[in-house]
Specification:
Blueprint lengths: L1 E8 L5 H19 L19 E8 L6 E7 L7 H9 L16 E2 L25 E8 L3 E3 L2 H12 L2 E8 L9 H12 L5 E6 L3 H16 L6 E6 L10 E7 L13 H10 L6 E8 L1
Parallel strand pairs: 1-2, 1-5, 4-6, 5-7, 7-8
Antiparallel strand pairs: 2-3, 9-10, 10-11
Helix pairs in contact: 1-2, 1-5
Length: 288
């Protein structure tokens, strides 16, 4: 089971970008809410949908001027779509700092990762089950070049706890004021020896945000899908008195996203069988 914690750097996200990002968060939650798996008992009732989406944000306090981490929605028990919508819609809209993106050599400590990767926040979500893998997705429009020792240790400890961290950089028009490629390369060198860390760079247009929603939903959906069991019964015996095969059906490994990709073998197979898509058969077991 995968539990995803989103961390939004509100200091760097302009109001228009934050508005679009909030819509993406709501869309993801809606997709997840209607994906409840069917009960294995065969009834039409769905299983309770576990809470597997967390939402945090970082902003600068107007009183102390210190960077603070706030938890907007923590996954507890079953997923509550109404509460998640309320959390997203109530994200502060006045936390954007126009001069923040122009700061040089920002430190990863400003991301408050140490405030997330601990027993009070992320590690307490979902209990202490070994079947849960956690992922932190930090979304910002600033490049953080310096990886301080405390943050690096927290990331190394996160790897030991099966936690992955993905840095998502949404490049805005103001990014031309800084050496974005140079900053990205410097940051990649900082996290290069951390196997649980990754970096993604996007131009935040509608196509990119829609793609991110699909990507995030796919990560959540993979644990929701149950294998479809099937039994093929043949008119004549295959071997001895055996005339049937039991197997599990699953989707093709090469997923078709947004369009149909031509596949010669699939087309030939389709013409012979009358089915539109190839099916992978796994775990074949013969039965008498």
């Amino acid at each position: 089971m995968v539990l995803i914690c989103f961390v939004l750097d509100l200091r760097s996200l302009s109001p228009p970008l934050l508005r679009d990002l909030k819509q993406s968060m709501l869309q993801l939650a809606n997709f997840y809410a209607i994906s409840s798996p069917t009960s294995s008992t065969g009834s039409s009732r769905s299983k309770p949908l576990l809470d597997r989406i967390g939402l945090c944000y970082v902003l600068k306090s107007r009183i102390s001027r210190a960077d603070e981490l706030k938890v907007a929605y923590s996954p507890r028990g079953n997923f509550n779509l109404r509460d998640f919508h309320h959390a997203v819609n109530n994200l502060p809209s006045d936390a954007f700092l126009p001069d923040f993106n122009g700061s040089a050599a920002l430190c990863c400590s400003d991301l408050k990762l140490c405030s997330i990767l601990n027993d009070k926040v992320l590690y307490s979500w979902g209990g202490h089950s070994k079947d849960i893998t956690r992922k932190v997705i930090l979304i910002s429009s600033s490049i953080f070049e310096t990886l301080d020792s405390a943050t690096k240790k927290a990331l190394m400890d996160a790897a030991d706890n099966c936690v992955s961290v993905e840095f998502v950089f949404l490049e805005q028009n103001s990014s031309h004021l800084v050496d974005t490629p140079g900053s990205i390369n410097k940051f990649l060198k900082q996290i290069g020896d951390l196997e649980n860390c990754s970096f993604q760079n996007y131009i935040p247009d509608s196509h990119a945000l829609s793609g991110l929603v699909k990507k995030w939903f796919q990560e959540l959906k993979e644990d929701l899908e149950e294998q479809l069991q099937a039994r093929f019964v043949f008119k004549s015996n295959l071997l001895g008195s055996m005339n049937q095969i039991s197997c599990n059906l699953c989707k093709s490994f090469n997923q078709i996203i947004d369009e149909f990709v031509p596949c010669k073998k699939a087309q030939n197979w389709s013409n012979r069988t009358g089915l539109a898509l190839p099916i992978c058969i796994m775990g074949i077991a013969a039965e008498d």
